[in-house]
UniProtKB/TrEMBL annotation:
It holds the Pfam family OmpW. The lineage of its organism: Bacteria, Pseudomonadati, Bacteroidota, Sphingobacteriia, Sphingobacteriales. Keywords: Signal. The keyword Metal-binding does not apply. GO terms for biological process: transmembrane transport. Residues 1-21 form the signal peptide. This is OmpW family protein. InterPro entries: OMP/PagP_B-barrel, OMPW. One of its GO terms (cellular component) is outer membrane. The keyword Transmembrane helix does not apply. It comes from the Bacteria.
Length: 230
C-alpha cells in the first residue's frame, strides 16, 4: 500500500505541474481503450517450464503536455489484471506429471509510463508521433490461486517505446491511435511448500523458494478520443 500511495502522489504532482503550465503550451487529455498483450517468457527454477500470461483490455487515461512546438511529454494512467500460470513444468518430484501447468492465480499491474514524444509537422489533420521513455510497474492485489501458498512479484523499472497518431475532428477534439512496447521483466518467487509429499519432507525448503525470471514485454494497443486545451 505504501508503494501505491507514493506512486499516486507522484502522478498527482506531475498532473498538477502540467495543469499549472498549460497556459505556456498545449495540454491534451485522451481516454483510450487499450489491449494489453504480453509477449511472455520465463526461466523457472526447480520445476522448470515456461510462463503463460493472459491478455487484458482496459481503459486508460493519458495527459500530454507540449513544452515546444513538436515536442511533448506524455503520462499514461491505467491498471491491468492478468491470470498467470506455468506450462510444461516437471512435477514428478511431488508425484505429479513431468509436464504440467500450474495455476499461479492473478495479479494486478499498475504501470505508470512517462514518454517524450516528437510530433511530425504535417500541416494537416493527421498528426503522427514517435516516443520513448520509462515505465515503473507495481505489482499488487496478488491472488495466489488454488495451487501454491504464495506468489511474490518484484516491482521494476522498464524502457518503453511508442508510435501513433492523432486525427483532428475539430480544433479541440481528435481521434487517437497509439501503440506502445514496454520491455518489462520481473523476478517472481513461488512458495509451493504446501505441495511437499509427506514421505519426502526435505523438499519443503526447496519448494518454498522457487525462483523465476519472467519477461512480460507487453504490447499496448490503444484507440481513443482526445480533447485539446490551448
Amino acid at each position: 500500500m505504501k508503494k501505491l500511495f507514493l506512486s499516486a502522489l507522484t502522478l498527482s504532482f506531475f498532473f498538477s505541474l502540467t495543469c499549472t503550465a498549460q497556459d505556456k503550451g498545449e495540454l491534451d487529455i485522451r481516454l483510450r481503450g487499450v489491449a494489453v498483450v504480453p509477449q511472455e517468457s520465463a526461466t523457472i527454477g526447480v520445476i522448470g517450464g515456461n510462463v503463460s500470461i493472459d491478455n487484458s483490455f482496459i481503459p486508460e487515461l493519458d495527459f500530454t503536455y507540449f513544452f515546444a512546438k513538436n515536442l511533448s511529454a506524455e503520462l499514461i494512467l491505467g491498471t491491468t489484471r492478468h491470470s498467470v500460470s506455468t506450462v510444461g513444468s516437471n512435477l514428478s518430484a511431488i508425484g505429479g506429471p513431468s509436464s504440467a501447468s500450474v495455476n499461479l492465480g492473478k495479479v494486478w499491474l499498475l504501470p505508470p509510463t512517462l514518454t517524450l514524444q516528437y510530433h511530425l509537422p504535417t500541416g494537416t489533420a493527421f498528426k503522427p508521433y514517435l516516443g520513448a521513455g520509462v515505465n515503473y510497474t507495481i505489482f499488487y492485489g496478488v491472488n495466489n490461486g488454488p495451487t501454491v501458498s504464495k506468489v511474490s512479484y518484484k516491482d521494476k523499472f522498464a524502457f518503453a517505446v511508442q508510435g501513433g497518431f492523432d486525427f483532428d475532428v475539430s480544433k479541440k477534439v481528435f481521434i487517437n491511435v497509439d501503440v506502445k512496447k514496454v520491455f518489462l521483466s520481473t523476478d517472481v518467487t513461488v512458495n509451493a511448500a504446501n505441495l511437499t509429499p509427506a514421505e519426502n519432507p526435505q523438499l519443503a525448503p526447496v519448494l518454498a523458494n522457487i525462483p523465476a525470471a519472467v519477461k512480460i514485454n507487453p504490447w499496448l494497443l490503444g484507440v481513443g478520443v482526445g480533447y485539446r486545451f490551448k
